[in-house]
Amino acid sequence: MWASRTIMLEVNRYVENISQDVKEVQSLQMSDHEDSLYKEIKAWLGAQDDNNMNSGRYEQNLVDRHSGSGEWLLSHPSFQQWLNTNDTDTGGGMQSNLWLKGPPGTGKSFLCSTAIDKVSKEEVCCLYYFHRFDDQSGTGSDVGTRAAALLVDQLFHHFWRQDKKVATSVSAYIKTVQKTVKSITEVARLILKHGHQHQQGVVHLFVFLDGLDENKDPQSRGTREVMGMFDGFEAEVPILLKVWISSRPTNFLNKCLENWPVINVEEGGKTDVEEFLKSALQELQNDEDMIDWAQEIEGKPLHDWVLAKLQTRARGNFLFARLMVSQLKDVAITVDDIIEFVKSSLPTDLTQIYGRIFDQYQLVQHKYLGLLFSLLAFARRPLHYEEIREAMTLALSDPSKGGLDPRKVPNIKGMFAPLIETQTDPNEPGNPLCRLCHSTVQEFLTTSPGILRIQISPAKVGDLCLRYLSQERYSKLWELPSGDQHEPLSLFSDDVVNTQHHAFLPYCAKYWDRHLEDLSPTPDLYRSVCSFLRSSNFQTLLQAQSLFVTHQFTFLKKLAYRRVFPRWFAQDPKNAENPRLSELFGHEGYKRAIEYRHFMYEWGYLLERATCLNATPGKCFDEHFRGEVDRCLSGLLGPTHFMNGMTERYPSFMLTREPFEYDKGKQTVIAEAVFSDAFQFMIVSSPSRDSSDVHFDVWDLSQSEPPQLVSTRLDPTATTTSSSSSSSSSNDFISNIPFSYEALGNNLNMKLLLDRQATGPIDIGGVQKQQQDGKDQDQLEPALSTDFANRGDIIVVASRNVHKSRRPKKSTAKKTKPTSRPIHPIYPDSDLSDDADDYDDDGYSSTSTDDDNSADETCSEGSTDFESDESSDAEITVDESSSSESEVEDCDDSDDESKPKPPKKAQPKREALVLTNQPDDEDEEADFSLKGEATLTPPPSQGTSRPTWPGQPNRVRDPKRDRISSTVSVCRLTPDKKKIRLFHYEKHGIPAMLYHSPPALHPTHPLVIWPLGGGGEVLFADFGEKTYFVRAMMPTTRNTRHICMKVKFSSCGGYVHFASLEARLVVNTSGGGRRRKGKVEDKDGEIAVSLFVTTHRLSSRKMTRSPPRLVHKVKLGLGQFAGLSLARLPFTFTWTDGYLYMSGSGTRLSLFRVGLFRPTGGDGEVPVVMVPRLSVMLPLSAPNREVHYLPGLKGGRGVVLLGSYDKKNRHVSLSHRKGSREMLVRAMRRGMGDVVGKTEMMWYACPPAVIFVDEERDLGGWMPVANDGGGGEGGDGEEGMGVVADAKDRLRDGKLTRRIEAFNWQDDMDLEGICEMCNAPLAYSAD
Question: For all residues of the chain together, what is the average pLDDT?
């Protein structure tokens, strides 16, 4: 008994210890999480440096203030009333204001620090902001944003110390917004709201604003925003707000603060100044013990006489008193000197005293002082000591020798007093900040630039910046260390550059253009700037800006970036301030600005992400490339771009035969095609939208660099009405191209043009069927897509149309308008009808007289191989020719020549259609198929039994939409350009559209394979024997459908490969999605996209009659997306003998190499899907272009081909769901799909471009795909990336399935039961 009790006690203690350990671990984890959120919020505010300067100014004021000064303020009635105002009578929601005003130099900042010191000792929240006159790095809203961020940073720190949970709500908000005054104000509201809930009472908030008058634009928007930042909070949060403003009186502030209580510094500060002068004279008397201060002057002792004179002249001005005492110490050698100074040399104001200080400098010092005060007076921010030394060394060095002369390094510390003071920088303790002692010194230097023999001018700083950046040492990019990319890079690291040699670089990189605005534009200066921009030094400047200048490349509102050139240089010729200068240089500056803007649109995003701004170590949101500006491929910018010749990591070129005019270009790309076997690329374009000319350009990409324009031709059919006159030249042009219709894919525009040149008109379908016998019949709309394939003189034409049913007159369905647009006539002398007269009689014979098709369907039982048919239900066979769903009689195609033919009616001339976007019907089909119900349910019975495919998704099997009609014809071209039709097939009622799925021709046998529709049906046609059969390639899951299906025969002809792009709707019901009538309504639904690749072996004996056998399959999950374009798919495919290369559109080369055969070496040992090890970054327009990869160049090189860009007409899109910043960052790190909004996209069209890469050096070789999807079939987790290869259980078999007879429970069940009570048959219900 006692033993068991002892054991139980031990177990209890053990459990308690474990529980305590778990609590400690959870507490540590929570603490780490809260610390991480704190750092994240502080990083978003970005006010740490400003706060360091701000707190340093406050602490320095407390140290430098005269002992006992400011006591009058603390006892002042107005201050006491402002300080002691409470919320007893108001219940909170009250604001109290106080304005401390006075002229410059009266000690307002010191008094502000005294008041802050008093208030901060109370249990209240105290925020303060000291505006610095010498920090003019921003104007307008920039000043307001920095000041607001600084104040909210203090507010957050105050409440975070009380309750760390305040970071949770703030962190959730900042992930979805950019930093503006409005968003910062909202953060303040969230913090105060949480603080009120934590304190359970009124929040006492003190806000001190000092020196608002020292802003260069005191009436700016930023000043107004800071002053009213906390207004209106009391309506939601009980807050007692007390605002202090200390400044000199200005017209703007007098108007804004006219109703505020005022404390005048001149009246109350006289006592402090008098006490300061007494103390200063006492120190002087103690130091100068040889002077008899007891001598009487004008009836008073010398000490009292001097003190009275100084107090009278000072008039309560601390700065003036301090400078007078300083000068008195310099002349206090004898009593006569003191008397003479007080009687005749005592200054009357600050201007006079500053002039006397400069008069005391020796002439030999003037050249140094001119540079020193020019830098300090006109710099955009306080400069460090080393920055000043390096700038002055460059100015003193001989320009002809280049670089810095070490013998010219000046010793400038002895020239600081009394007008220059230093302040310790916490980030660089050994490199103090240097600044003028007061704003009045800056005002004096601005109004008296000639006070020295060397002019004090802002032009000196601008000249120094341009000269510094143009040094020879910056003509090459820095080779930066490849350390951990999550660690911030410092310019002053020992392994990068040396402080003494590059101290002035960060400042010049940020402010060089601002200082050049201070210079008067001259022809020589204009040439210097142009020369600098065309030099390699400008690329090094971009490298420095990406590393050390925050928001240099940030996209702003209304398609704007930060201005980077002087206004006089980049001025618009229409609004030029100096027309003569613009005319002299041909508006080169304006052109450079336009070209730089194009560079920013393409590569600004990459430079902006060069430095990780996340404060949490090891958790960088953005994958960045520190200082790797050579990743910004300048060749893609165009041959005439001023940055075209800069260093780039991979050779790149824009494919254009005319100079690219950027936003003024009018060229319109109609279509383009890749001939991967010959490494050639064809572009069909028109000079403008209104032009009737069509240009065919063929580029040879087989050479490493640059691409060669091997042929170009103007389409004569577009400029003449006679087709016969241009036949020869057109056909000669086409014969010089390694032409393959299959390479054109789904580009109807190009195929129509090439078809017209090469063969004359070919019917591609799309004519409407007329009413017959007075009954409304179904209609065929114009072709949604037309695909071609050819092998020598054999051409296959396949088209898909919408099969619309006539709707009732009272239907409320909205009418849809086609989005296609006509261009110049392609068939001016003929119609698009497909009459039998167009074909030789001996070339067309049908063995079927009761349907449209010119061939017989076979049941594929000719093979002696028992397993040749891949259907899992091989014992069930259905003759598809007996099906009632697709056969429609076509009288025009009858074989019977004895039947009289009706006279041929004249047809109107037809125009080719440029399908800039898919027609509305196509978009509806995509929306229905991809964003339907989350749970698939069988459709209601239609009362008929229909043959179906085993396991076919119900939404594909019997959708409630219009059906697709597919037509394919095989023709042979004779030497005299006549067409002999060999095979014709039509199928109606296909339930789902398939996009960009051309037919494939066997390299030697008369076999055509063509995917029919999104349900997976595939046509196998023997155009020699005029037979066919249909099998289905089932999607990998029941709720998945095909988007496109590519077919490729192996070069040996023994295998056929299928590559299917699949889509599946993923609905997030856990986030509060509502169910309504069986449907899930959730805006957060996404489309999971995957690639399914299969390889089938063809029968060696009966290749055209026996279905191929599955030998290999692989599924690759590509991720989850909010949507994708169908007119131009964001995925491209390139086939080789052993691999399929699939690439997706995005800012990173998203390339996958999929093995077409099962790898050797055992299951799972050799990866089937590989990706490059290294990242290749693409321009920002790449997500809206087609991205091709062509492998196989000599030396293991490949070609990355970027299709044309056109935001309006040829737009590629793979969009991500909008959400938190982490979601967007994950998308950016994956690099696939759109990463910016439509407002950040270029509005003008851009030609195609190519990039040459080395697979080993640039891509780093190949590595397996990381399964980061978190499980599922092919990676359907959070990011959806994953691979499943040759799996039997995790995905459906991938076999080509035959059609079987569907089971109907009403007609196929014949069961009876005997009821014991009524002895009657018992019928089974559908349920």
Answer: 74
